[in-house]
Design brief:
Mean pLDDT: 77
Number of domains: 3
Number of helices: 13
Number of strands: 4
Distance between the termini: 115 Å
Radius of gyration: 49 Å
Length: 413
């Protein structure tokens, strides 16, 4: 009735007029129905919402029970498969670091080019000076040789000299002439050597000038340097894990390509695999983890391919077996005859035992890659705080005694 009075006052119409007008009548019925059933509708909506919440609770309880049922050695397998990647997820800072390294390599290339040309020119100048010195020596030797030869001619013109004295002087002069000639030949050989060195250095200068920067190679080196630096920094990334056999601390060492761990108890390989999976997932380096199942599958495929190749080779040998062989076959006197094993009698008291692993060794699959783990000691051996390199902080820490003496002498000057 209050609603009817509100409509009457708002629209200024009577009750009979309200019911005569069909539009207002329909509006009035809808408004009355909504006002009457509003509480009922709210209750139905809440009931549906409560049912959904209960269903969600049931699902959560089932997931928790599944997690409890999973063994420790089987943890993080599905998560690892979802996050498996071939390399790091590099950031903008990483790419900027690689770009800076590429620029540094380019600058080093140009600097080494200049240094190489300077070194070659110095070598050429040094050999030119050597040649000039040798030429002066040759000139002096030739001058001595001419003087000796002139003196010999003058001595031969005198016929009144004694025979003994002539023989002694002639022998000495001949020896001195041969020595001078040998010295001149030696000097000429050194000149040829130095000239060859000069030609080699000139060819080196031409090669250096013609050398061009391989930008793709330097960019690749910058990327590899950045990636290697990122791998080395993983040594500072550590995780602590609580296993059923005790606590474990693990990190990755790039230098040894192994996962290092600290623990006060012996941890089996299957638990270390679980800790390793957690490590690579947290620090986003899943490519370091080797999945043994996939590795075994690859090895099986390779083994099957080898067997197929061996069968093909045997078939080819069987086909070509009828052909006459060129090389002779020698008898092997150290081997047992074929019937020797059959004639051996086994004692009655001895039981014949077959080694099951004898035939299985041929079918064994050897894994090419596995995860490597290294125990570094107990938790007392683990240094949480990184040691500081004093040479990086204090320049005087790398000061030698000779450098110290130079500093003192410079101060005195």
């Amino acid at each position: 009735m209050e609603s009817i009075g509100f409509i009457k006052n708002y629209f200024n119409i009577s009750v009979n007029e309200l019911f005569d007008n069909k539009i207002f009548f329909v509006l009035f019925v809808c408004f009355f129905y909504a006002a009457y059933n509003s509480d009922h509708i709210y209750l139905i909506f809440n009931e549906k919402k409560n049912i959904k919440n209960e269903e969600q609770k049931v699902v959560n309880i089932k997931e928790e029970t599944k997690k409890k049922d999973i063994k420790y050695e089987d943890k993080y397998i599905e998560k690892l498969k979802q996050n498996m990647k071939d390399d790091f997820e590099f950031t903008k800072e990483d790419y900027d670091f690689a770009e800076n390294k590429y620029i540094e390599f380019c600058d080093n290339f140009e600097n080494n080019k200049k240094k190489g040309i300077i070194a070659c020119n110095d070598h050429i100048n040094r050999n030119n000076n050597i040649i000039n010195e040798i030429l002066l020596d040759i000139r002096d030797l030739k001058y001595k040789l001419e003087n000796i030869e002139n003196s010999v001619k003058l001595e031969n013109d005198f016929d009144d000299c004694e025979e003994n004295s002539d023989s002694d002087n002639s022998s000495k002069e001949s020896e001195s002439i041969e020595d001078i000639k040998n010295q001149i030949e030696y000097c000429e050989q050194n000149i040829i050597k130095s000239k060859n060195i000069i030609e080699e250095e000139k060819n080196k200068i031409i090669e250096i000038n013609n050398s061009i920067i391989d930008h793709d190679d330097l960019k690749k080196k910058g990327y590899e340097f950045m990636r290697e630096d990122k791998l080395k920094k993983l040594k500072n990334n550590i995780i602590f894990e609580n296993t059923p056999l005790g606590n474990v601390c693990m990190r990755y060492n790039y230098d040894t390509s192994s996962f290092e761990y600290f623990s006060n108890s012996t941890i089996p390989f299957r638990f270390l695999e679980t800790i390793c999976r957690k490590y690579v997932i947290i620090y986003r380096c899943t490519f370091l983890y080797v999945d043994l199942e996939e590795e075994l599958r690859r090895c099986q495929i390779k083994q099957e391919e080898k067997k197929k190749e061996e069968l093909i080779l045997k078939e080819e040998q069987m086909k070509n077996g009828n052909k006459k062989e060129i090389f002779a076959k020698f008898k092997n006197y150290n081997s047992m005859p074929s019937n020797f094993k059959d004639n051996i009698s086994v004692p009655k008291n001895r039981q014949i035992t077959n080694n099951p692993n004898a035939n299985n060794n041929e079918n064994m699959i050897l894994k090419e890659n596995t995860n490597r783990y290294t125990w570094k000691g107990r938790f007392t051996n683990f240094d949480i705080l990184k040691k500081i390199d004093k040479k990086l902080v204090n320049k005087n820490a790398s000061l030698t005694f000779s450098d110290f003496k130079k500093i003192i002498n410079n101060k005195k000057m």
